[in-house]
Design a protein that fits this description.
about 700 residues, mainly beta, Maltoporin, Chain A, 22-stranded antiparallel barrel, 6 helices
């Protein structure tokens, strides 16, 4: 059954839902408590105060068991409970961010988190409405998410400066909405020079330039109908501080368009229906000493139907989505100014690959690293909730997905095409389906109490196109990577437990997890029989293989807060947090780049006029090392912030100064493949101002 036929079948099933719901008699549900605020959903202003830079990973780094696979100013993708890459879905206004940051850690996430309004980390049943990822879903919302949510005229300007290394940033927003019309205009610009590490060395090619523009328009046709349009354009130009002698740079561009039609019916079972169309065009090039050696492009077109409904004591959200994307890749020294099909002379394909197998036993390639691929997808997901008592809530989630992946090797130079003599089905079309389920139960009450939330999930994930087909050198990370076309679906059973104890001024939170994987997909460094690292014959770089194994992840985060204002009347909060995790194969070997244990102590003074905070974080030396993996020394990171707030009539002003790595520690991020050539920045002092009307 093709994608279109499946979409029609699912639409028919959805259309049949009212007939079932109308036979149910609605029962009133009284909610008498105020739920505990979700610590994984915070406004961007709050997250920005604790962020050491403007990457998404840095914004989320203080959440329980969340780390950032970062180097410097440009790149920082969140790593959640040891889950990285494709195991974390990143959404902007409920649509997947079209970029290639999950493919490699040198690729920046194609979002500007400082221009958003709220960032949310979903896991358990709630995350299955959008995706089935073991690390959950990062949901970024900005002004284009709902143009009518802020009535009236709003203006905001902000800027910041840093002396050494020099950097400057500015954001501007103009927003207007009334009962019928809404419009939004926003912009962002940031430029940073190469920074110095804690040992006083300038990190070459660590500069960054970012620009973003947003435009939105909304129209309420009537009391129950509204139409919204939005567009976002983002560019990032940054260097890659790797070990190659030539300067490596990446310039990415992302254009995103969205139109939605929302209807609020007068129905006994349906509260909202929204149909949206989303298109995205992503392009980034990689240059070596000014030569355009690599080009990556991804175009996505998708449509979703979202329904909010209730039946009896159940409330639910259902989401039906169809999408088509095309990924194109070029790798050719100085020859990637555009995408094109390779020349065919009629001779045998893959002669050089076959020669590499004969000489080395491995199919090394120096051509385009993977075929162009087309991905057609269909998903239907539903999340339902019910109060089973006055304090206890039950949640159920399901996510059903179909995918057809079609590779086209016409872009690969003929001598580097994988020859049929080695594998006649190497570029086969792959169709599969995945089913994921989750159940959660929680207790949420106000006042002094023990609150808890437990979820169990069974998740299935398709291997990505590059995990299947990549075969080539990656200039930015200076590594050679082999994909594996025989990868199976990755399956996991996830247990997440959250406990919160509140008593007067005390609050303690324990977040723990245990994930069991079958056929976990990871990259593992290759070694020869004598124990020496394998190197590719073209660049003499490390060789990494894409493998599968059963794996176990477990860990916990413990946080304690003492709010001194409860009894002493002091607007001060003292807090401490410790994060630890373990990631091993079924055989007991540690997986590469496991985040080391870390702990932090902090103090916050918060009044309407003043905000002052200080945090000291200790990251321990990495000791959970994969075979032949180098350890990373621990470090201590001290940060502080002082902020003055005041209001003049209807205008809000904010003046702040902050310091990062005030001890000037020589710090390296164990999660980064570029930790040795791109240590973290040394001491930085930044000042900024914000005006809002």
């Amino acid at each position: 059954m093709n994608i279109q036929a499946k979409a029609l079948l699912v639409a028919c099933l959805l259309a049949a839902t009212p007939a079932t719901a109308e036979q149910l008699e609605l029962e009133p549900v009284d909610v008498t408590h105020t739920p505990e605020p979700d610590p994984t959903s915070q406004d961007t202003d709050t997250l920005e105060q604790g962020a050491s830079n403007d990457t998404l990973g840095s914004y989320l780094d203080d959440l329980p068991n969340v780390d950032s696979a970062s180097y410097g100013e440009a790149v920082g993708r969140p790593v959640v409970r040891g889950m990285s890459g494709y195991r974390i879905k990143i959404l902007q206004n409920d649509h997947e961010v079209s970029d290639l940051s999950a493919m490699s850690q040198d690729h920046a996430v194609a979002v500007a988190p400082q221009a958003s309004e709220r960032i949310e980390l979903l896991k358990g049943p709630a995350s299955l409405l959008y995706a089935a990822q073991a690390g959950g879903v990062v949901r970024i919302s900005d002004a284009l998410d709902d143009l009518f949510s802020k009535p009236g005229l709003h203006t905001e300007l902000s800027g910041d400066l840093r002396a050494e290394p020099s950097s400057a940033g500015a954001t501007a927003h103009l927003h207007y909405a009334n009962n019928r019309w809404a419009a939004h205009l926003g912009g962002l610009s940031r430029d940073s020079d190469p920074y110095e590490s804690g040992d006083g060395q300038v990190v070459r090619d660590s500069d960054l330039s970012t620009q973003q523009a947003q435009l939105g328009f909304g129209w309420r046709v009537g009391d129950r109908t509204e139409v919204q349009f939005g567009a976002t354009g983002l560019t990032k130009d940054y260097g890659i501080p790797n070990s190659t002698a030539e300067q490596t740079r990446i310039e990415l561009q992302r254009e995103d368009y969205r139109g939605s039609f929302r209807y609020l019916p007068d129905s006994l079972w349906l509260s909202s229906a929204q149909l949206s169309v989303h298109g995205s065009d992503y392009l980034h090039d990689e240059t070596e000493d000014g030569r355009q050696d690599g080009l990556f492009g991804q175009q996505v077109l998708g449509s979703t139907l979202e329904l909010e409904w209730w039946a009896g004591s159940w409330t639910g959200d259902t989401r039906l989505g169809v999408s088509r994307s095309k990924l194109r890749v070029c790798h050719e020294h100085g020859g990637c100014d555009d995408f094109r099909d390779a020349v065919r002379t009629g001779g045998p394909l893959g002669e050089s690959i076959a020669q590499s197998v004969q000489d080395t036993g491995l199919p090394y390639s120096h051509g385009h690293p993977m075929p162009d691929t087309e991905d057609e997808g269909l998903q239907i997901s539903t999340v339902v909730h019910r109060m089973v008592s006055a304090d206890h809530a039950l949640s159920l989630g399901s996510h059903l997905q179909w995918r057809t992946l079609t590779p086209d090797p016409d872009n690969i130079q003929e001598q580097w095409v994988h020859p049929e003599s080695l594998d006649p089905d190497h570029y086969r079309r792959q169709s599969d389906q995945a089913l994921s389920l989750s159940v959660g139960l929680g207790k949420q009450v106000s006042g002094n109490a023990l609150l808890w939330d437990v979820s169990v999930s069974y998740l299935e994930r398709f291997p990505s196109a590059d995990e299947l087909y990549w075969n080539g050198f990656h200039h930015a990370t200076d590594t050679y990577i082999f994909g594996n076309v025989d990868l199976d679906k990755e399956r996991s059973v996830n247990l997440d437990v959250e406990l919160v104890l509140k008593h007067d001024e005390h609050r303690a939170q324990l977040s723990s997890f245990y994930y069991r994987f079958d056929d976990y997909i990871f990259q593992d460094q290759g070694f020869a029989a004598d124990g020496s690292p394998l190197v590719d014959p073209f660049h003499l770089s490390e060789v990494w293989f894409t493998r599968q194994t059963d794996a176990r992840f477990y860990g916990a985060s413990l946080r304690y807060e003492n709010h001194l204002d409860v009894h002493r009347g002091w607007p001060v909060t003292l807090w401490a947090q410790v994060d630890a995790l373990s990631a091993t194969t079924a055989g007991g070997e540690h997986l590469p780049r496991t985040a080391p244990t870390n702990g932090a102590l902090g103090v916050v003074y918060d009044t309407p006029r003043w905000l002052a905070s200080a945090t000291v974080k200790r990251v321990l030396r990495s000791d959970n090392l994969a075979p032949n993996e180098d350890e990373t020394e621990g470090y201590t990171w001290l940060s502080a912030r002082l902020q003055r707030n005041w209001t003049l009539q209807d205008q809000a002003w904010q003046l702040w100064i902050m310091g990062e790595n005030l001890l000037d520690a020589d710090a390296r991020n164990h999660l980064s493949v570029l930790k040795d050539t791109a240590p973290l920045p040394g001491r930085q002092v930044i000042a900024g101002i914000k005006w809002a009307y």
